[in-house]
Amino acid sequence: MPSSDSRRWIPSVDRLLASPAIQPMIERTSRGFIADLLRSVLEQIRRQLDSDAAEAWLEEGVEKHVVERLAREFDRVLRPSLCRVINATGVILHTNLGRAPLSRQALERIMETSGHYSNLEYDLEKGRRGERDGHTSQLLQSLLGCEEAIVVNNNAGAVFLILNTLAENGEVIISRGELVEIGNSFRIPDILCKSGAVLREVGTTNRTRLRDYQDAVNERTRLVLRVHPSNFRILGFTSRPGVAELISFCRSLSIPLIEDLGSGCLTDLEPWGISDEPSPRRNLELGVHLVCFSGDKLLGGPQAGIIAGEAALVRKIRSNPLFRALRVDKLVFAALEGTLQSYQLNREGIHILAIEMIRRSAQSIGERSEAIISRVKALLKDFEVTLSDGLSMIGGGSTPEHGIPTRLITLCSVRTPAIEVERRLRMSKPPILARIGRDCVLLDLRTVSPEEEPSLVRALENLGS
Ligand SMILES: *Cc1c(COP(=O)(O)O)cnc(C)c1O
What we know:
The protein is α/β, with parallel strands linked by helices.
């Protein structure tokens, strides 16, 4: 057993800093940084000196052991916490995985403007202060066909700001079937309460008629809120007034109709089986006063909340002091402008990654999957590797009951439980996230880009070793 005597075998920080093995780490960082790291490594070693392992260190040389530990610690500290992962779950707008991946055009805009100064709030023509949302307002106006549009931090912020501006101390009428919770913290009743508006629920969970809205109107009514139920559906004996019916009702009483659309779907996805995502442009054309939606759901851009509609209402919201508290950073404006420009150049959104993934055919996904299976099959002796039919999901609270037909790489093993295989894929570099179904691991290439395939193949090959 090493005694406390062995402590004197521990080399000093100064001696270690001179060691040739440590020089490359100092060159990559600094002497001070490595000295601090060495101190914490030596402290750990001191604490463990009485353990059995210490005997081996003393025999093999403490210095070698310290250098090895330092190298591990160096990698751990320098590795970013936020890192790239490969999403093989087939959930396109996966909230835990950052929702929509940005398209090339959005990334280019960030690269071009964010490492330099920019005209974020400067009017170059007039030579004076400008507005940051000026960079996206015209694009939004032309894409949405609206009078005015502004951008805030996210859609939850947009709903809050609208209610606080237009309905504080007044009543907001909303159908009981639309009092939803989205994600695990955005609850319409809570947001309403915090905004200072009073909730006036009408109808029942499954049925709300125009009559219910009519009966609720009084002199304190400020607006009618319509919320897209997004992540759930009430099926069976249900009804709610159509948007056109509510519009003529609200317009006849001069009460604004506000619609929280959840996802801003700018393209027609009906050919891909997605038919219940409302179009902001169409709803505004029909006469909804204001719509709001997220930037990072079906729009396929950065996290943002977009408020669009009648100029007088948008301007009022813009002058709320809380607009400043919910304002958006230059990186987001750069990415959003790039995303919107992609739509301007192609209204089908073919340059938007999330849309491109939705459009991938089960056949092309099947072909890519076959190619991967044929490469790894021989190495994965303990596994049955097959191709099967399945469903990809939109995610992000969009069209919950509509999966998109896809083909899945299916890994089944009698030796290794699926949760263990899933864990090993998740621990590979880069991490690969998969689904589990019927005790098999399922990989959906709908959400995997072709350039990620070599990493996926490598991780699968490692399962066999
Ligand atoms: C997703 C969603 C929100 C919240 O949007 P964030 O951009 O995540 O803040 C609000 N309302 C509806 C209907 C949604 O689907």
